[in-house]
Amino acid sequence: MKKYWLVLSPNTFMWLKGEEGLLYHAVSHAQVSFKNVGALRLLAEWVNDIDNLYRVELTEETLRQPEVNEWIRQVVDKECGKLVENDGVNNRPVSLKPVLKLQDGVQYYEWLHRQGTDGSVIKNLHNMVFYLNGSPFGDEWLHRQLVYPSTTETVADWMRIVQFAQNARQSPYLSEISLVGNLFSIPQLSEEVEALQTICPVMLYVTVEDVLYALPQVKEWADRQAIRILVKDYVALKTLLDASEWSTGLQFTLIVTSIQTYENATEIVETYGLEHAELIPAFKGDNRSFFEENLYMDVEELAEIALSKRDIFIRQTLNIADFGKLYIEPDGKVYANLNDKSIGMIDDSPHDLVYRELTEGNAWLHIRNEEPCQECVYQWLCPSPSNYERVIGKPNLCTKIKK
């Protein structure tokens, strides 16, 4: 009786969750979904044991079992693995299961801190968002989901901002400083931007309504400074676009909360040729059905996910949306995510804040390792947890697991 080796590719991930199983090839993006029961369960669990070198020996009798035969056919056809005859002459085939190996994990940084040599931790700071003040057109719902001003009347101390940013320049990967609020009402805005531009590029975020109230200033700034206009009022946006010609460098964030606002946004983009416009959905408390019908992922969409091995390892390690970002409110409180508690104050050193978030925080390393996602075979193919889950109060935005 002939024997064979089934060997999975080192580019193939296998995830087993209860009676569900999934193979995913990180190069071709092919998927093999299967029922993890009976004889197939025994084979899958054996292969998935890292000590077995991603292989299992099979007899002709085992291969004649319909569910095993069909599974192996799919594995081979989709190049997730190969079937090799065990003729007793050739060496046993081996493979390496793709397993994440952490180098700069939390324990590593804690060890460096105890040694007094953790200066490199600051390299994890990539972006800082300073809210300089609030706006009459601010929105607390949007403030918790995307870069958008609140309605606070507090005004930030710009000297403290500049000092904090100068201390943060130790990070070689600091790529952008964002300033948010009713910015053109701030007398010293020009001096502040000029000081911050010596550190890294600066982006201004202003609501379209605030722009309309400061048109002469905005026009003066538009040719020399990157400005992103935040839009939830499309009538105001049309008024702005009809007012005069604008710099092609002006950027727009168009906020979508319904099918109607989506249609309004796409019409304006096409009519006015807004090349630098992005459409971003937002939850506002009463539009959950819009999210469920248009933004929740279903099984068909999950089957079309295309990630590399590196992409998957990143999702297993850190939160793609939050990692590397600090948000500083006008009162000086610093956050890694505005939906979490403050991790410190602007008078703290950026180094200490980054270390605190990496070792104690709940944003940068917030991954899908909690229920119900940890019980799903698509756990590491889905996007990182986002602000949408936080404001909606639901840990997963998909229709596969209805929790």
From TrEMBL:
Q: Which InterPro entries match?
A: Pseudo_rSAM
Q: Which NCBIfam families match?
A: pseudo_rSAM_GG
| The protein, known as | TIGR04150 pseudo-rSAM protein
